[in-house]
Amino acid sequence: MSQEWKEKLKKYYAGNLSDEEVKEVEMEIEKLEVYQELLEEELDDETVRSDNTVKKKAKVSTDLPPKSIDKILKSGIRNARLSLVAYVIMILLLIYPIMTIVSYIYYGWGGKAEDLIDVAIQTVYVTEPNVSLEEMEIEEKVGLFTFDVYMDLYKRVGKSDIKQGDWIVNYQFDQATTPKRNYISESPPNDIPYYDTMKLFHPEARMTNIDGTAWTTLNKLPEGTVAEVYISLEELYAPEKIKEITENLNIEWRWYAIDTGLEAEGKSSDGGYLAPIGYPAQPDPDAWSPYNTFGENEGQFMDSLRFLEQYEQQAVDIAHGKWLDLSERIRYLENNGIRAYGGVLTGPTKEILKLRENKAIRTIHIGEVRLWNW
User: Fold this and answer.
1) What's the CA gap between 169 and 181, in Å, rounded?
2) Which terminal residue of the chain, N or C, has fewer Cβ atoms less than 10 Å from its own Cβ?
3) Measured distance CA(73)–CA(33) in Å, rounded
């Protein structure tokens, strides 16, 4: 140790150094601390005790003012923490893009993303009466082993497609979670349907939600309005025959509720409430739609059910109803054919009112009503 360093160290203890000189001394002391640690790692305890130089440096360390020792310790801890945080951030920055690429590969492999989008689309068409989608308003987003499908839902009221709201269907890997549903319509569906919220009834089913004022309400609505109405029939009809009920009336069927052998009781094989399923009554001019003009809607309905059967749990998680029983329903339809027990129609309010005395009609429920657009 030089004489100059000794003098400076004495002044440091006496507090006679400038701030800049204090910093220089403390930096040298830190270096001594590091040097001492290295020596202690290399030498055994006996050698350390016999080495006068090391003893002197140890004395310098132990003779430091308490405030300086505390400052040095805090500085070391702080630097260690910053280094750890930096390493963690660096690792995350390296892992995130790699995992993102793997996620894209996972959803792109074998058309998985397209299948998951189709599950969401076809679940809507089969389980949501008079609801349609627009291709340009279906978007998807890939996250870290998550896949989101964004859909805007529309209802036909009169001659216009009215936006009902939007759904965000989230898949974690390939398992769906309950969609985030945002509705802007006047009469959104219940989050969880049940017997007391039913609007469509099988001829043999007990009516648990009768709207005794529906016809009176239609009668009171002004002539310049159009309406969406849920129609329950007194018996089952083949799809090609159901239009005869509204023959010569200026109204349009939009969705058929189909008998699958379980609607009379309205219960799944597990005993839970079974919501209606069906398909659009009109072909969709858009080629991307599962009910396009390239085939009959009845056949496309069966194709939808068989496709959804492969992803039944995902479809159940997406749909409002918590049971679908697709295998049993498909077998019934294959053996008995497709017959409707009701559905949804739309048209001028006063034109729909002409069905009041029709003996084929069991009961009705009014959906959306809009000003004239027919």
Assistant:
1) 9
2) N
3) 11
Report the predicted TM-score, pTM, of the whole model to 2 decimal places: 0.75
Main-chain phi, psi angles of 277, to 5 degrees: -125, 160
Tell me the backbone φ, ψ of residue 151, rounded to 5 degrees: -135, 135
- Domain of 21 in residue numbering reads as 3-64
- Let me know if 301 is exposed, middle or buried by CB neighbors in 10 A (0-12, 13-18, 19+): buried
Alpha-helix runs per DSSP H in 109-247: 112-127, 214-220, 239-242
Q: What confidence category does residue 121 fall into, taking pLDDT thresholds of 50, 70 and 90? A: very high
- Alpha carbon 351 to chain centroid, angstroms: 40
Q: Which of 280, 290, 284 is nearest to 115 (CA)?
A: 290
- For the chain, what is the mean pLDDT? 86
pLDDT level of residue 61 (50, 70, 90 thresholds): very low
Identify the three-state secondary structure at position 294.
coil
Q: Does the residue 55 lie in any domain?
A: yes
Percent of the chain at pLDDT exceeding 90: 64
In a domain, 146, yes or no: no
Q: How far apart are CA 10 and CA 248, in angstroms?
A: 113
How many domains does one find in the chain?
Answer: 2
What is the separation of C-alpha 112 from the centre of its chain, rounded to a whole number of angstroms?
17
Q: Which of 64, 88, 106 is the last residue of a domain?
A: 64
Q: Which of 64, 82, 97 is the last residue of a domain?
A: 64
In this structure, is residue 58 part of a structural domain?
yes
